Amino acid sequence: MIFSLELMADNFFHFLSSDNAWKPRETFDKNSLPSCSIRSSCLFILLFILSSTVLLTALNRFLQEKNGSKMAFLDGAPPERLCQPIVDHIRAMGGDVFLNSPLKKINLKEDGSVENFLIGSAKEPHGKEIEADAYVSAMPVDIFKTILPNEWASQDIFRKLEGLKGVPVINIHLWFDRKLTNIDHLLFSRSPLLSVYADMSITCKEYEDPNRSMLELVFAPAKDWIGRKDEEIIDATMQELTKLFPMHFSGEDQAKLRKYKVIKTPKSVYKAVPGCQDLRPDQKTPISNFFLTGDYTMQKYLASMEGAVLSGKLCAEKIQISTEIGSA
Ligand SMILES: Cc1cc2nc3c(=O)[nH]c(=O)nc-3n(C[C@H](O)[C@H](O)[C@H](O)COP(=O)(O)OP(=O)(O)OC[C@H]3O[C@@H](n4cnc5c(N)ncnc54)[C@H](O)[C@@H]3O)c2cc1C
After folding, report:
1. pTM
2. What domains lie within the chain, and their CATH numbers?
3. Which residue has the higher pLDDT, 232 or 188?
4. Does 137 contact ligand 1 (Cβ within 6 A)?
């Protein structure tokens, strides 16, 4: 499911207009929070541990940008509809993309800059060395930390990454034998477990079905659930859905779950707690030929798709400037 940061901001209005708005942190009534949107917008963590920067940034954007309340879904699955066109473009421009070849090691020159990237699958013991003018890590922060060369670890920018940690989140796909909603929009629930969901049979072309709903839901905060069995997670989800759709899950003719898929991400976006802004790195690092990108790097859109895209643009700009300086 893909929707946008603007929509998250929409929900801050519900929050701000609720009785809980502007109460000091310790006076929040956890049970009466407008839980849905806040939690999803809150990057999958509870409101009372969330950095205020998240609220203020999203709200500011919603108020100031013309298309602030728009929502969009991809019309199909990300690998085909998002990634493949990018791969095609790179190849058309003379580049290449190596799939199933994760970065294994960053090999260094004597001066500490990058000599090459060693990539390859677990089946390839020796891997393949890739040389370039500039090297970029677009990996999630938790994975990058496992590959960070020891020689760089004490540098301030990399040392601070220790404080950025991904939060667990679960994504659930449910196929039903009938329509549960007719709403062509993202939906926010007051359930303490389900923050945000959509009926993909209506919102997404690839899953279009006039007769049966396909719900995609974000299950968060997922800290206490990530280690549990799929069946337990589905049971808990169905109990919540029974409250959200009593007309379909009570009486004699109840909606039936045809199939399901549970996708667990133990470390997703960085935990947006107070103080974490100071830990987010610039795209340019002190290593002359090494750059960072990804939603966790410093850019104005927090941990979101927009943030990831913007970080990529900033990274490209910084490589260009560095290369121009280098060749001058
Ligand atoms: C369930 C869920 C729902 C979300 N919903 C929304 C939403 O509605 N709106 C929104 O704006 N954001 C949403 N987000 C957040 C959004 O997905 C992220 O902010 C965004 O994907 C971050 O992009 P990224 O490029 O920084 O990192 P990622 O998308 O995590 O990409 C990092 C890539 O690095 C690859 N990788 C890992 N290890 C290696 C390695 N060793 N070598 C090479 N490559 C490697 C991974 O396979 C991955 O493709 C959601 C996140 C989750 C988990």
Report:
1. 0.84
2. 5-64 (no CATH), 169-265 (3.90.660.50)
3. 232
4. no
